[in-house]
Specification:
single chain; 210 residues; mainly alpha; 83% helix
Length: 210
């Protein structure tokens, strides 16, 4: 009989890495509220996790740790993206608009623009590599041959459950979450998270260069 403990360990650790609010979750929430390609956004986030977690668990986690210049370049691009998107969210929160106009605030236009923005908010954050390649990867890579795939599957199930739940939940409760005061609060939260993460990444980058 197969021991499913690695599966549950991967599921719980995966949720612990993914659920805490951050730039990616804030972006998924916003797109869900707008019901604007929100399932595409969730699918891209899941696909990126599948790719990165699989690489990490099956031995590629050391690659990122050994490439400081690559990590610095990703960090710099992430700072620029987070600062831009955070500023747009704050502008949307404070600009005096009607509810219908507010919903368009910093809405991304085409499917392609949403796809690129989702990839950016996911892959330009160096924390995603720390969580998937380094932390989850190092834990999974130490497991035996039969346990490792189960651990990876558990992590991937966590990603699938969380992003679909967040995206569908935001879309389901969009009428409530899109009310002017609520939406303004969400925009302020999203903008604050984005700019705070941008500042943290900037400090980390400066410390790395010293």
């Amino acid at each position: 009989m197969t021991d499913t403990a690695p599966l549950w360990q991967g599921l719980t650790l995966g949720l612990a890495m993914i659920v805490p609010i951050g730039a990616q979750n804030a972006f998924v929430l916003n797109q869900g509220i707008r019901r604007h390609h929100h399932m595409l956004v969730a699918s891209v986030c899941i696909f990126c996790d599948v790719f990165l977690i699989t690489l990490g668990v099956f031995g590629a986690g050391a690659l990122m740790s050994s490439q400081p210049l690559l990590l610095s370049a990703i960090t710099l691009a992430g700072i620029l993206f987070l600062a831009t998107y955070g500023s747009m969210a704050l502008r949307s929160a404070w600009r005096p608009q009607a509810a219908g106009e507010r919903r368009e605030g910093h809405r991304l236009g085409s499917r392609g623009a949403v796809l690129l923005a989702t990839l950016a908010v996911t892959l330009l954050n160096p924390h995603v590599y720390l969580d998937t390649l380094v932390i989850l990867g190092s834990i999974g890579s130490q497991m035996g041959g039969s346990e490792r795939p189960l651990f990876a599957l558990g992590c991937l199930l966590a990603s699938f459950i969380w992003f679909n739940t967040l995206s569908l939940g935001a879309a389901r409760f969009a009428p409530v979450l899109s009310q002017p005061r609520v939406k303004q609060g969400i925009d302020l939260l999203v903008g604050g998270i984005m700019l705070t993460l941008a500042a943290q990444l900037c400090l980390q980058l400066l410390a790395r260069w010293q």
